[in-house]
Amino acid sequence: MPEPDAPRPAEPARDPDLCGDGARTPFAKAVGELVFPGMTDSRRELYLRIAATYDWTFGLHGRTARAALWHSRRGQHLRFVQLARLFEPDVVRRGRLWRRPRGAVTINDLGCGYGPLFEWLDRRRWLAPEARYIGYDLSERMIESARRTVSDPRAAFYMAGEATEEADYSFASGTFGMKLDVPDPDWELHCGDVLKGLWAQSRRGLAFNMLNIHGRHTRPDDGGLYYADPDHWAAFAERKLGAARVSLLARYSSHDFTVLAWRR
């Protein structure tokens, strides 16, 4: 895979091939314009397809890690531990224990699902009373479940494909794994655009995870999953996002990796 800043061959301008024929019906287009306004048709159609897929998995599995395509709750929480390392430069240390980040920290969670990251952070007392968490997801059923179950006033959940508010820290966990039938090069362009938008809404730092291409042989794959090169995306955070410091975490699991990026 080429480095993120490697020159690409000249080609005609086009929208990435992000959508299937079923998402191009007049009804789907009309619904998409209402639910996901202000974006290209191809992006809107892709989001409708992803939303429908996760609505379906939620109907099968309910409020469980499997609804978000994690194998288990334990595996889901292992990824949360890696994401929380984004807080380390800004936490209070008391003795040998790390405490929650200082002050009224705000968090964006893009691809929040039914709200498990908020619940995990809250159980571990990582969120101060004045903290604020904003979760975004494409799936209506996921968002409805999060709103019904999480009554904490610090948390808000929105059906959206991008972060609409600025926050101190932003997370994207499991957000980029399912590409459906989108070709890898087009999906990589899509992921890059989403990460640039999320970085623009992040005052202090951004953390995201992806499936690791080096562990692809250990997982079933029907072509609908995106397996990424860890070095490529760590370099993307440094060179394309302009992060002052980047950390690549790839030893906690052979299946995926996490990139942490800080502005200072």
UniProtKB/TrEMBL annotation:
Source domain of life: Bacteria
Methyltransferase domain segment(s): 109-176
InterPro entries: Methyltransf_25, SAM-dependent_MTases_sf
Pfam short name (any one): Methyltransf_25
Protein name according to UniProt: Methyltransferase domain-containing protein
Protein species of origin: Caenispirillum salinarum AK4
